[in-house]
Amino acid sequence: MNMIILDDHPLVRQGIRMVVAAGHNLNIIGEASSANDALQLLDTTKPELVLVDLNLGNDNGLDFIQEARRMGHLCKYMILTSSITRGELQLAQSLQVEGICLKEALPEDLLYAVEVVARGRKYYDPVFMDTIMEQGPANMETDLSDLTPKELEVLLTLGKGRSNKEIATELYITEFTVKKHVSQILAKLHLADRTQAALYAYSKGLVQFELQREA
């Protein structure tokens, strides 16, 4: 997997490069110290993963990710940070950022996190997962009326374990539209991923109701 590093501290970039070099089939193909430089680097290198410092001086790593995706760079993104606010964590979840790892993590833990994301899975440091789980009770009180009718339909299909392709076929919409609806559902319900959305639908009795209706 080809990667670039976005961090405004040269020593940090050097440290990350040394850690990643110990992994199998992981290649650092570029470095950037600012969001603007990183956006240009994305155009020229086409990486599969970007390791992003959350705090970039006057810039914010999440703003960079939003802009990069708006420009069509749909590679994976992993946030590296020493701290993150609840609001930033919720935004990262709504953006479906593939990974969040502490800068203070042991080298082997950082390498493990990168390899997990490289394999197509999400990695959120357990420290941040604790914060996500603390939001659980509040999540259960979320008013489903915040969802549009189509988003509610998508939530029901998530509860039944449907893939994006299956949802698109079932609801007669494109996979791109499905992804947009899933992103909005996660943001509105303050959920981390599809699995939490499915559990939420089940806990609300939505899946059971849908299955009875189909029967």
TrEMBL record:
Residues 2-118 form the Response regulatory domain. Keywords: DNA-binding, Phosphoprotein, Transcription, Transcription regulation. SUPFAM superfamilies: C-terminal effector domain of the bipartite response regulators, CheY-like. InterPro entries: CheY-like_superfamily (IPR011006), NreC/VraR/RcsB-like_REC (IPR058245), Sig_transdc_resp-reg_C-effctor (IPR016032), Sig_transdc_resp-reg_receiver (IPR001789), Tscrpt_reg_LuxR_C (IPR000792), WalR-like (IPR039420). The modification 4-aspartylphosphate is found at residue 53. Residues 140-205 form the HTH luxR-type domain. Pfam families: GerE, Response_reg. This is Response regulator transcription factor. It comes from Paenibacillus hexagrammi.
